[in-house]
Amino acid sequence: MNKVILFNKRPVGKPTLDDFKFVEEEQPEVADGQVLLKTLYVSVDPYLRGRMTEAKSYIPPFELNKPLQSAVVAEVVESRLEGFKLGDFVTGNLDWKEFQVSNGSGLNKVDGDAASLSAYLGILGMTGLTAYFGLTEIAHPKSGETVVISGAAGAVGSVAGQIAKILGCRVIGLAGSEEKIHLLKSKFGFDEGINYKKTADMKHAIAEAAPNGVDIYFDNVGGAVSDAVLANINKFGRVPLCGSISNYNDTEVDLGPRIQSTLVKNSVLMQGFIVSNYSTKFKDGMAQLSKWLQEGKLEYAETVVDGFDQIPQAFIDLFEGKNNGKMVVKI
Ligand code: NDP
Known about the structure:
- By secondary structure, the protein is an alpha/beta fold.
- Helix content is 24%, strand content 27%.
- The protein has two domains: 2-122 and 301-330, Alpha-Beta Complex (Quinone Oxidoreductase, Chain A, domain 1); 126-276, 3-Layer(aba) Sandwich (Rossmann fold), CATH 3.40.50.
- It has helices at residues 48-51, 126-139, 155-166, 178-186, 202-209, 223-230, 260-265, 282-294, 311-317, and strands at residues 2-7, 20-25, 35-43, 69-79, 89-95, 99-102, 108-110, 146-150, 170-175, 192-195, 214-218, 233-241, 269-272, 302-306, 326-330.
- It binds NADPH dihydro-nicotinamide-adenine-dinucleotide phosphate (NDP).
- Residues 45-47, 127, 130, 151, 153-157, 175-177, 180, 220-221, 223, 225, 242-246, 273-275, 318-319, 321, 323, 327 line the site of NADPH dihydro-nicotinamide-adenine-dinucleotide phosphate.
């Protein structure tokens, strides 16, 4: 039998295990023009929380009683589709199933010898590209500038901070534990780290860490942390809005300070973005990230959770900050 995880109910507030349902189905049959895929690694990502609501967004909501989906690395275990052979590794936005058939649409082959397979869900996948394009296409970092990154020890943040370092910036990371602050400095080469969970006055702490002010704020979290950073933004500052995980489980609208006058007075550019805006440039972004990785200029961290049954819990744990770098589930 084939294990499947269905979307059981729409969460109210923080997701719980009840929102997911484990079922078993017959093993799928492969028809002409199809491949059979065995799931090897599953990506869990904060944006999936948005798909659990009915709100209109850039991607359709999950349907109740249907399998959840995310980026997956899979192995071709049977092929009746030209261009795919047994043993090929692929990525794609696939169902949370142990095995599934595909007609090849949306599948990309990946090279298991060039990098670890899980890296294609992180540094060489969607989150690496998000960091790369958010920073280079919106923030345009210049050498000597000060960059603040929130969610800094996570999948996107840890890469964004390192790219800013490669481009000659001074980088300050905000994260939620002492272990993460240590990781930022020792592994990822950040200049400073601030544990937002242990810092009473974030505005002051950021001012101390960034005596010349903040030129770029790469925002992964939104909320009060971001208010404190924006209070330190410099003239002509740039703020790529990547995510706002601090609000994803809110049941009421979180009203913060009104920021328009800060942005006007300082001529700040704030721009939301979705990584797929840059899909025509993904090949170039991948090439640059791979090159930096091979040259040893980029490091990455992963929290690898074991077992298909652990996918929902791994997803929930993102909201508790239990991951260092990219959270993936190994099947
Ligand atoms: P992460 O690997 O950063 O994991 C999530 C992290 O968020 C946790 O480890 C935790 O770290 C932090 N966090 C959780 N709750 C809160 C909170 N209430 N306040 C502050 N921090 C919190 O995830 P990703 O790197 O995959 O994603 C980071 C952000 O980027 C998310 O907002 C995501 O939605 C967004 N994103 C946007 C994309 C786009 O195209 N715009 C594409 C991909 C991601 P800590 O211990 O530090 O609290």
